[in-house]
Every structure is written in C-alpha cells, then in structure tokens.
Design a protein that fits this description.
Helix content: 10-25%
Number of helices: 2
Distance between the termini: 8 Å
Structural class: alpha+beta
Strand content: 35-45%
CATH superfamily: Hotdog Thioesterase
Length: about 140
C-alpha cells in the first residue's frame, strides 16, 4: 500500500485569534496531499476536460489543535473505489514536540467526470489499478 506523505509548512496566516491553525486550513493541507497522490498516476499532460474529477464531499475530524511552531505532515491514501467515484482519506500528523500524533483526519469523495459532456464517467481503468495499490488493507 502506498501512503503519500507531504511535509506541511505552517504559515503565520494559517493561525487564528485563538493561536491555533484555523479549521479551514486543514482542507488546503488535504488538497496538498491529494494533488501529490494524483501526480503519482495521472500524467502531467492529462486532458482533464475528458477525464476530470469533481470534489463532491470533504470531511474533517479535528483531534487536537495545531500551533505555529509545530512540525506536521499530511498523509493521503485511497479508501474505497466505486464505479464512478472513489474516497481519499487523510491524516494530519504532528511529528514531534510534547504531543506528537494525529491532529486531524479527513475524507474526500472524488467523482470522475467528463467536463465537456457534463456527466459522471466510470473510474478509468489505469486509475482504478493505481488507486487499488494505494488502499490500506
């Protein structure tokens, strides 16, 4: 199984008045990990209009706050693969300090979509194979 891990730099602008990372920032970090995962099997010159993706759902479960000096990483892997969609799962993990561990978990539902014809399409075969190698047992 392939879990994609991306180091994340916490910016000053990510921190809110309560002095921890604002909840909306977690979705940006999930996106960083998602794009790294997709780059593993979708070519750079891919025609996104014919075989595209729509982000249909995003979920975030907060476990503990993240602060500006923390060292964190985002992880992504594939959950389930359906006929026309697949789930991506995420973890935001603090790597060191007094409280290392999982700070947030998340899930995205990705729908395969033909943007030119405005309709959902089956998960392309090559994608299905690649995503299958990125699921946890």
């Amino acid at each position: 199984m392939t879990v994609v891990k991306v180091p994340v730099q916490i910016r000053f602008a990510d921190v809110d008045m309560a002095r921890h990372v604002h909840n909306a920032v977690y979705l940006q970090w999930f996106e960083l990990a998602r794009m790294e995962l997709l780059k593993r099997f979708i070519p750079q010159d891919h025609d996104w209009r014919a075989e595209g993706l729509i982000l249909a759902r995003n979920e975030v479960d907060h476990r503990m706050p993240i602060h500006l000096p923390d060292r964190i990483e985002a992880e992504a892997w594939c959950g389930t693969i359906g006929n026309k969609s697949f789930d991506l799962l995420y973890t935001i993990r603090r790597l060191d300090g007094p409280k290392p561990g999982v700070c947030a978990e998340g899930r995205s539902v990705m729908v395969c979509y033909d943007l030119e014809n405005e309709r959902s399409i089956p998960v392309p075969g090559a994608w299905r194979l690649a995503l299958g190698s990125m699921t946890k047992p």
